[in-house]
Each structure stands twice: as structure tokens, then as C-alpha cells.
Amino acid sequence: MNETSGIVGEPVVRFNNVVKRIGRKTIIEGLTLDVPPGQVFGFLGPNGSGKTTTIRMMTGLMAPSAGDILVCGRSITREFEQAISQVGAIVENPEMYGFLSGYRNLQQYARMRADVPKERIDEVVRFMGLEHRIRDKVSTYSLGMRQRLGVAQAILHRPKLLILDEPTNGLDPQGIRELRDYLRELTRLEGTTVFVSSHLLSEMELMCDTVAIIQAGRLIDVRELHGETDLEAAVEVAFEVDRPEEALRLFGDGAGEIRESRLIVKTNREGIAEANRRLVQAGIAVYGIRMLTRSLEDQFLEMTGGGHIV
Ligand SMILES: Nc1ncnc2c1ncn2[C@@H]1O[C@H](COP(=O)(O)OP(=O)(O)OP(=O)(O)O)[C@@H](O)[C@H]1O
């Protein structure tokens, strides 16, 4: 099994002022972005914002007009072989033979890469939770299973970076969560960094540790997501209380602050109930509780001037 990639924090992908022009049109405008190791990293943007173009450049299908993309420190333009050997990708629909079993498909693909032993095929089948159906014809697979078989194929050579273009397309929330869980496991076991594109914020929130948001070829934000949903993430909560200073002392150093006579606590969903209990037990009157942190969706709408992501 592989060790996790390189030095902690060393980016697996580095976009260095990447520009792509096609004809007179600038499709990507100076993209500078680091993708940290060991994450499921989302690349989010509305249709036509430049996601596929970026992925095509990352996989060497298109050359940048200016700037460079480094994969594990190797330039995709100047050191293509070294860089691409670290990449597994599903860019368009993975080529699968429906009349063959999942296993035969993987064998077929492994044969093209001389260095993939049988044990590795068995391992990726386990990683992607396909062992019970791997001898069945691919034509009988659900979309989610086909996606997972595609991932299994793409990781046969143990890439450090797995790139998936819109992998959640057509999957239901359950299918998205399953895919996410398998990708997380892959990240944990092999240190693989996963780069996924999507135009759906809600799906990225289910799937990713961090999202980079692009619009019209420009990076507009990079944001860590802290949990499955906003309610599980840390949120700022304002408690309207009768004695704010005294209330603040119930929360350790740095855990709260006073703003406009209200006690502000940064916590998660469970923490809100707990904080409320603590206040009431200390005899402090609580007149109101309000969440201050807006959802990523609200923030996204604000950043894009109210334009919708889908
Ligand atoms: N070969 C090309 N020639 C001219 N324009 C192109 C070409 N390829 C892409 N574009 C344009 O570049 C922009 C970005 O396209 P791209 O496919 O990268 O976006 P995307 O974010 O992946 O969108 P989608 O989710 O719809 O696939 C679009 O306006 C598209 O029309």
C-alpha cells in the first residue's frame, strides 16, 4: 500500500497563473490555486465556467496558453510523462464493455498497463465495494456502480491524484454519499487526492472537504467545508441574554465574545443546545438564539451577484 503523498501540505496540484485562450476568447483567466493532499477537493462553477477546460489541461488533453500546472511538483507541459503517471482520471464516460463482467473490464484495462498485478485488481475491487457484483455483466450495474467501477479502473496504477469530471451527474443523494465514502476511504488508505468538478453546490457540499469556485474562467473563492451539512459545521450563534459579560465567563477563553450586547458563540448544532443548557443552568435569562453564519449557498449567491449556480 502506498504511503500518503509527500510532505504534509505540499500541494498535489499547483495551478500557476494558468490562462487558456481559444481563438479570441479567454476561457481561463489566470487561475492560481493549490490543491492540498489527501482531500476530496471540489471544483465548482456554473455551466460554461471553464471546469472541463481546466480538467482537459490537467490531463494533458489541451495545453495552457500561458502559465503552468504542476502535478506532484512536475509540470504537465514540460514533464508530461512524470506528471501524468501520477494521475488517474475519468474525463468523459469511462470506456466499459457492458457485455463483460466488471472484473473482465478491469483485467482488460490492466493488461494495457503491464505493471498491474492480479492482487491489485482485487484490492481496487474491495476499495470500491464491488466484490459482490464484480463477476456480473456491467450492463446490469446501476449508474453508481458503473461510476465506482470507473474509479476502480482509474486507480489501478495507484495515482496520487484522481480527477473526476462531474462524477455526481445522475446520482441520487444516497449514491453521492456512497461515492464520497468510497473516495474518502481511498484517500485514507492510499493517500489519493481527489479532484472533482460539479455545477451543483448541494452535491459538492455532500462530497468535498474544500471547494474552489470559478465563474466565467475566474477563481472567485476557495472554501473549506466542515461537515456534511451546514448544521453540522461550526456556525456563529448569537444569544440574547440578560447578563452577557457573566454569560461569557461560562465559556472558556476564546470560545465566545460579546458583540452589540449579545453573546456570540462559535459552535455546531449540538453545541447550540449545550450552550443554551449551560446558560439556563447558571440562571441567565435567554431571550433569543440566532444563527449568524450564512449557508455556503447564500455566500455563493452573494459572490456571484445573485446569479444561480445551476
Ligand atoms: N473548443 C472550444 N472552442 C471555443 N470555445 C470553447 C471550446 N471549448 C470550450 N469553449 C467555451 O469555453 C467555456 C468554458 O467551457 P467548459 O466546457 O470548460 O465549461 P464547464 O464549466 O465545463 O461547463 P459545463 O459544465 O457546461 O461542461 C464555454 O463558454 C465554452 O463554450
Count of alpha/pi helices: 10
> How much β-strand is present in the residues?
25-35%
E-strand count: 14
Name the strands of the widest sheet in spatial order.
6-7-8-3-9-10
The H-and-E topology, N to C, reads as EEEHEEHEHHHEHEHEEEHEEHEH
Mean pLDDT: 86
Cofactors, ions and other ligands in the entry: adenosine-5'-triphosphate
Structural domain count: 2
In angstroms, what separates the terminal alpha carbons? 39 Å
Structural class determined from secondary elements: alpha/beta
CATH superfamily of the largest domain: P-loop containing nucleotide triphosphate hydrolases
Organism: Saccharibacillus alkalitolerans
Family: Belongs to the ABC transporter superfamily.
GO molecular function: ATP binding
Domain ABC transporter: 13-241
Summary tags:
2 domains; globular; 6-stranded mixed sheet; single chain; 4-stranded antiparallel sheet; transport; Alpha-Beta Plaits; alpha/beta; ABC transporter ATP-binding protein; ATP-binding; 310 residues; binds adenosine-5'-triphosphate; Rossmann fold
Question: Can you describe this structure?
Answer:
The protein is of the alpha/beta class and 310 residues long. It folds into two domains: 13-224, 3-Layer(aba) Sandwich (Rossmann fold); 234-292, Alpha-Beta Plaits (2-Layer Sandwich), CATH 3.30.70.100. 32% of the residues lie in helices and 27% in strands. The chain contains ten helices and 14 strands. The chain has helices at 51-58, 80-84, 102-112, 118-127, 143-154, 173-190, 201-207, 244-249, 269-281, 296-303, and strands at 13-22, 25-35, 40-44, 66-71, 74-75, 87-90, 161-165, 193-198, 210-215, 218-224, 235-241, 256-259, 262-267, 286-291. The strands form three sheets. A six-stranded mixed β-sheet has the order 6-7-8-3-9-10, with helices on both faces. The chain has a four-stranded antiparallel β-sheet with strand order 2-1-4-5. The longest helix is centred in the middle third of the chain and has 18 residues, at 173-190. The radius of gyration is 23 Å and the shape is globular. Residues 1-7 have low confidence and may be disordered. Bound molecules: adenosine-5'-triphosphate. Adenosine-5'-triphosphate is lined by residues 22, 25, 27, 45, 47-53, 199.
